Amino acid sequence: MNFKSLEVDQQFEINEAFSLFKNDNNECNKVKHALRALGLEPDKKDISDLIATTTKEQISISVSSFRELAAKLITKRDSNSSMDYAFKLFDKDNSGKISFSDLKAIATTLGEDVSDHHLELMIQMADSNGDGLVDKNEFISLMTTKKML
């Protein structure tokens, strides 16, 4: 699959990852890091194939080369593994559950001014078993629900 045939949100995600790791020449020399930021784990063959498209003098890749490799890998990405990855980003203390303090830390890190009341409502919305925490199954259920309030 090529980059242009991906969903718009996937294209955006790939472009954002490239932007995080691009250098002054608008090329990426930390390809593995950029791919991992997408929740992708390139194998040696993927990296070898990519290196084969560069010259010895070239230590970084263009946005178009990065897009094509990421597009190939993102279509292989298992949706459950991407959900696991996303869950781990929210589960700051690695407890296996997302707490109010985890959510507050994420909001603060992102510079979002969200009231404690709204954060509590977010937890309540996802917390189907009523324990005040969001476990991985509740998180996946919330993230895969088509229609959210």
TrEMBL record:
PROSITE patterns: EF_HAND_1, EF_HAND_2. One of its GO terms (molecular function) is calcium ion binding. Pfam families: EF-hand_7. Residues 78-113, 114-149 form the EF-hand domain. It comes from the Eukaryota. One of its GO terms (cellular component) is myosin II complex. Keywords: Calcium, Motor protein, Myosin, Repeat. The keyword Glycosyltransferase does not apply. Coiled coil: none annotated. The keyword Calcium applies. This is Centrin. It comes from Heterostelium pallidum (strain ATCC 26659 / Pp 5 / PN500). The lineage of its organism: Eukaryota, Amoebozoa, Evosea, Eumycetozoa, Dictyostelia.
